[in-house]
Amino acid sequence: MEMSGLVRAPIYYGRKSVKRGGTFTMTFRQEEPSGFARLVPCKRDVESIDDLVEEARALWKAEAPDSKVGKIAAGWGSVGVLFGNAGARERLASDWSERFKGSGGKALSVVTADGEFDIPWPNDLDGKPIELDIVLATATDPETSQPAAESVAEAWMKQAGGYETYFLQNVRHGIRTGDDLAIWRHIASNPPAWMNAADSYAEAFDVLRKEAQQLAAS
Fold first, then answer.
1. Is the distance from CB of 111 to CB of 139 less than 8 angstroms?
2. pTM of the full predicted structure?
């Protein structure tokens, strides 16, 4: 994690989670990057299809801790791959497609039946494409229509299970969407009880308040 870095990516709060009190979690969409994600290096170099599959399995286990060993997908989501150059694609794409299908991988709105992401290649903070061979990520099935920022905010405001931590920890670690300030303004307009009892969120609150003030002053 100490080697991780931020990249521009097309992420948004687009999936309603029953297990998180009806709040929304992040997923991807097919458009130009409007948010910031955190890119984390694999623990080892990916030189073969076995290396790639092993990393995909580990990533899915982090996404779905209760999943069976060796899985890379469920009915609601899956791991997907982006190939950054022709060399990586030539070495791994065909074998990855075979392993993806054999491991229960499924096509999603942003993942093809071959297990490849159908989203733009991520850019660095200067807007330049990152120079990597492969990017692995998990995608989930989004809602049929994109939730409004107010709906996303209301879901966190109405719950009392601590699920607001998902949004606030994302902010704290620089994982952001283009709707964050609209979400924050709606929450701050009618503060829920957890805003007064969550000193651990102070860092995220400070970031959002400063950004809101800067936007108001501009």
1. yes
2. 0.90
Is residue 56 domain-shared with residue 130, that is, in the same domain?
yes
Looking at the fold, whether 136 and 72 belong to one and the same domain comes out as: yes
Residue 43: exposure state from Cβ atoms within 10 A (0-12, 13-18, ≥19): exposed
Average pLDDT over residues 187-215: 90
The answer to whether the CB of 113 falls within 8 A of the CB of 80 is: no
Is 49 in the same domain as 133?
yes
Q: What does residue 67 show for φ and ψ, rounded to 5 degrees?
A: -75, 160
Domains held by the chain: number:
2
For 70-118, the pLDDT digits (tens) are 899 988 899 999 999 999 999 999 999 999 999 888 888 899 999 999 9
Domain of residue 131: give its range. Answer: 5-140
Q: Reduced to 3 states, what is the DSSP secondary structure of residue 79?
A: strand
pLDDT tens-digit readout, 106-145: 888 899 999 999 999 999 999 999 999 999 999 999 998 9
Same-domain check for residues 157 and 207? yes
